[in-house]
Amino acid sequence: MMNGRVKLLALVLVPIIAVWPWMAHAFGSLGHRLAGEVAEVYLCEPARTELKVLNGRYSFLTAGSWADKVRYRKEWSYTRPWHYINIENAPFSADTPRSSKGDVLSAIYKYRDQLASPESTFEQRRVAMLFLVHFVVDVHQPLHVGYASDLGGNKIKVLLGGKKTNLHSVWDTGLLQSESQSVQDYTLALLALTQGQEAAWQGSLPVDWVEESLALRAFAYDYKPTKARGLTALSDSYISESKEIIDVRLAQAGVRLAAELNQIWCPEAADTGNAAK
Questions:
Q1: CATH of the domain at 145
Q2: Global pTM value
Q3: Does 263 map to a domain?
Q4: How far apart are the C-alpha atoms of 270 and 276, rounded to whole Å?
Q5: Residue 102 phi/psi, 5° resolution?
Q6: pLDDT tens-place string over residues 75-100
Q7: How many domains does the chain have?
Q8: DSSP states along 220-271
Q9: Over the stretch 225-270, which tens digit does the pLDDT of each residue have?
């Protein structure tokens, strides 16, 4: 169960409601798949229909991984800074100066507007959808609201389950991969976390999601300095508490992603927070 510190962090969530070879994909394909599974439950029927048209023969549940794959292509390399936002310790607001290359927050607003615009071409709307479903999930990973000095924890080498990795990769994929349950069972567990929280979570704004991750970032860095083979070995308690945080963040990401899409195609459902059921 969560200790007092993590309970305090959990309370924060309800009311606010250059690529290196070893850099992990943002939240990994599994994390994006799980958030997509949650989102699909809360989508209204018009949104489901439009997403099928935009995705063509591909599934909405796999759409979240596209942005990670294309950022390694030369023609899409300019999108790499859009997967995160670097913030130091100063308080953050929508007016805080940010990178001129863009970041995950500006990318969410950009592609939400492009997807909703009646003047966007079909291809522009398709690309906007693919980026939006990815970036909404990315911003919920605490280390995607990171420090530029260590690349959001990518430079911090640690041991997870006796294997060498880095802190960012732990939060992107390591914590999820350590679960033995199936995608279906994991999705059910995440959906259980959404019950009674939908309206509060959907009532928040993208800038709030950044602030939430910023608040949780302190915990992500609060690992114990136990050394093994010259690296920091993450404790069982740290791993357990981190998993609880990640599960809540994925549940929130799914509910909020559905709300963003519903707002475009069925705003009346988005306003009530009862699009799925």
A1: 1.10.575.10
A2: 0.86
A3: yes
A4: 10
A5: 95, 170
A6: 999 999 999 999 988 788 878 888 88
A7: 1
A8: HT-----EETTEEEPPHHHHHHHHHHHHHHHHHHHHHHHHHHHHHH-HHHHH
A9: 677 677 888 999 999 999 999 999 999 999 999 999 999 999 986 5
